[in-house]
Amino acid sequence: MISLSGRKLQVLVAIAETGSFAGAARRLGIAQPSVSAHVQAIEREAGVVLFERASGRQASLTEAGRSVLDHARESLALALRLEEELDARGSSAATTISFACQRSLAHTILRAPLAAYARERRDVRLSVRIAFQEDVLAAVRMGGADVGCLIADAPPDDLPSILVGRQRFVVFAAPDHPLAGRARVAPGELARADFVGPVASSLFGRTQRRLLSRVGVERMHIVAEGTEFSLVRDLVMAGVGLGCSLHSSVQADVEAGRVCVIDLDAPELFLEARLLMNPKRANNRKITEFAQFLARGAELAEAPAQA
Question: Which residue has the higher pLDDT, 60 or 288?
């Protein structure tokens, strides 16, 4: 028996409706290789080819692919109707709140608010998932999370969101890096330097490149990359290259002299921290109160740094 997850079905429908793997990746907020991996998994399980693959052309469904697509749409429609029915029955008495959060925010501005909410609201079971940007988006879009929180350079078009603050980013380096300790480093010099960064194809990798391009760093020469900030930080401290991160994530290392912030001759770097609301659950009273509680707590956590 073929068993396809909701995400695989979502990917298949998104490809068919956007006409390409790249379009599906943009719609779902995931990396294009993830889209390809989902399609390959369906093809392996079903034992059929779903798309005719030709370079430079739109993704064209095979006859077998059209059959699977019909099944995907029917299954997703049934799941949606069931979810709406259950949500309607339990909308006034939700006892579990599912929250997906980008790691850097969970460990900084949301650390205290999450603990305070869990301590004060014993009537609510709080389920927290730490995830990458694309996973936070997908979880909220596909109903796996009631609320999400991530760093972004713009609000998503398809989800209601709450701006909870602007997060300062810095470029940092090992103390013996050639740019360390210099005053007013021109953005063009960073474009000629080596960087250690997040995976370039990830949503956060693309967001980081857009952030730096705004102040004139048109190119990031990535010589090493990693999904965990701890690895990025260790490679920067080892002198592999420059890093770019939330100031709060490297503040302790700066104070201890393990790294230093590059004095960039450009406006300060900021990205938004946003709470995302699952549209199907946004009217639930307890979920709305939870989002408002986090927003207030995040503002308080940021206040000292902005004073």
Answer: 288
Residues 189/221, Cβ–Cβ less than 8 Å:
no
Measured in whole angstroms, the distance separating CA 22 from the mean position of its chain's CA atoms is 17
Q: Is 138 helix (H, G, I), strand (E, B) or coil?
A: helix
d(CA 53, CA 57): 8
Listed ranges 82-91, 135-144, 248-257, 298-307; the one with the highest mean pLDDT = 248-257
In terms of C-beta distances under 8 Å and separation of at least 24 residues, what long-range contacts does 106-112 make, across chains too? 106/130, 106/149, 107/249, 108/246, 108/248, 108/249, 108/301, 109/164, 109/165, 109/167, 109/248, 109/273, 109/297, 109/298, 109/301, 109/302, 110/149, 110/294, 110/297, 110/298, 110/301, 111/301, 112/297, 112/301
Residue with tokens 């730096």: 212
- Cβ proximity of 221 and 193 under 8 Å: yes
- Among 38-47, 71-80, 201-210, 263-272, the range with the most confident prediction by mean pLDDT is 263-272
Which residue, among 211, 167, 169, 170, has the nearest Cα to 299 in the 3D structure? Answer: 167
pLDDT in tens, 225-251: 998 889 999 999 999 999 999 998 999
Are residues 211 and 154 in contact, defined by beta-carbon separation less than 8 angstroms?
no
CATH topology of domain 6-89: Arc Repressor Mutant, subunit A (1.10.10)
Structure tokens at 207: 């967001």
CATH 3.80.10.10 fits 97-307, yes or no: no
Question: Is pLDDT at 304 greater than 90 in this prediction?
Answer: no
CA distance 262 to 295: 31
Q: Which residues of the chain does CATH 3.40.190.290 include?
A: 97-307
- pLDDT digit string (tens) for 258-269? 999 999 999 999
Which helix (H) or strand (E) covers residue 174, if one does? Answer: none
Cβ neighbours, 10 Å, residue 32: 15
| Cβ pair 147, 97 in contact under 8 A | yes
| Beta-carbon count within 10 A of 290 CB | 23
